[in-house]
Amino acid sequence: MILDGVGLPGQVKLTQSSVVVVGAGGLGCPALQYLGAAGIGRIGIIDHDRVEISNLQRQILHNEETLGMYKAESAALAMKRINSELTVDVMAVALTADNAMSLLHPYDIILDCTDNVPTRYLLSDASVALKKPLVSGAAQKFEGQLCVFNLGTNGPCYRCLYPQPPPQESVGSCSELGILGVVTGIIGNMQALETIKIILGKEDQSPSLLLFSALGSPPFRSIKLRQRKPTCVACNNPGAPLNSTDYVQFCGGPSPDWVSEGRIAGLAGHRIQARELHELIMSSTVRPRILDVRPAIEYGICQLPESENVPLKELLSQPEKYIPSSATDLYVICRLGNDSQIAAEALRRMGRGACVKDVIGGLRAWSTVVDSNFPIY
Ligand SMILES: Nc1ncnc2c1ncn2[C@@H]1O[C@H](COP(=O)(O)OP(=O)(O)OP(=O)(O)O)[C@@H](O)[C@H]1O
Ligand SMILES: [Zn+2]
User: In this predicted complex, what is the ipTM?
Assistant: First the structure.
């Protein structure tokens, strides 16, 4: 607040802004850490993946104690340790063409901290359609890139810069090619910086691509970019590519893990965040029907008020017994959000698909974003 050019008004702007970070890995962790510490009012984290030991060399919000946890949850926990008053929305799902608009829509600025080309195009097309700036980072081996897309009314999008995806053989993941952890730290921090500059109104309006090479001399280079390309299919017809593109096919495959997990990819609209369920409970006069599919002994230890317990095994043996009448929605919950997906799928197969929703991240997410006193283990 004492920084000349920021001051109290600047801090207020940060507090009133909202940002969504897609990918809580090597780039997302440092970006989230600084965005949280800076006091951004609302931060969404989207990542369907879980923490693995090989991630810890660079994904610095996760640690040995959060191995196996959803990265989105693990990152949120670490951020709340910096500032317990932060508002963090945990979205432990893969971003897909079906859910992108609804998940990204509530936020002012979008950060691309992912690691695969289909998601980059998807995020770009969604940001163009939503008219929101996209702060995009990438890192591999000793190198990184940073670019802010869709700035102002004429800033280029990712497709303006790369109308066609790179040849499949030139693309590799960090786990295949390796990465110096600190390189993702540098780019992720710069993503946080560019985001904060946009919020404070201090961003550079002339677009550029920043290239970083840890072994280069000098390590940073910047290339000036043109404004929007008149031939760009996304900028000319916002929303159209999003509705018509099979992103994995467009990029020449192979499918990232989240696409082969058909459970996640095809079920947008059939899932609900813990926060949304809470809002629903608070706002509706009739209490929503909640089915808790954990074993009875776990349900006995702690449960949501007025939830019913039908252990998964029991439900799978007679799913027809528990299908809701078409008038009521049914919310299925478990500890971490896996068994509830299986249960919801079994119920949906019985017919009235739209009525059954599973709670993403389960009771763990509930305790992270809704009620920190909820005694989940
Ligand atoms: N479509 C998507 N929706 C949500 N998260 C995504 C999507 N695509 C990629 N991500 C996330 O972006 C992050 C990228 O980070 P990073 O490459 O450092 O991690 P990683 O995938 O765990 O790495 P590794 O290649 O070592 O396994 C991952 O956590 C990944 O789950
Ligand atoms: Zn474009």
Answer: 0.97
